[in-house]
Amino acid sequence: MPGIPLAVAVRTTLRADARSAAAARRFVADVLLQRGFPDGCIADAILLTSEAVTYAIDLGGSAIGVQVAAEPCMSRVEVHLLDRANAAGISSIPEPPSGTRLQVIQALAEAWGVEPEGPRARFIWFELRG
User: Fold this and answer.
1) How far apart are CA 34 and CA 24, in angstroms?
2) Radius of gyration over alpha carbons of the chain, in Å?
3) What is the pLDDT of residue 115?
4) Rounded distance, CA 71 to CA 66, Å?
5) Whole-angstrom Cα distance, residue 50 to residue 47?
6) What's the helix, strand, coil split of the chain in %, to 5?
7) Around Cβ 63, how many Cβ atoms within 10 Å?
8) Distance between CA atoms of 129 and 73, rounded to whole angstroms?
9) Whole-prediction pTM
């Protein structure tokens, strides 16, 4: 998996409903703000978190886990589908329009991907320089 070693990760678990994207945005913003990231980087992280969480909820319909790891110049956000039975659909990047969320992530992130997590589950991750 691409990426750099990062500081200790901070995690939260959210329900699969429309309010989870807002909760995930606040969580990621708070972590990055506490670690001194610039406003522009936090704004990008908020947008990408919203896209990744909404995409995961649309595909999986399960609870999701959001993890943030940050060092002085790099942050990594991961969105995990916690109900592995429902996560199989995220194994490939769909064509637009359902892939539009991933296209936003691809356009703004330093690096990103969809990774396997066990035989059926996947998680979405992205990295931003701060």
Assistant:
1) 15
2) 13
3) 80
4) 17
5) 5
6) 40, 30, 30
7) 17
8) 5
9) 0.81
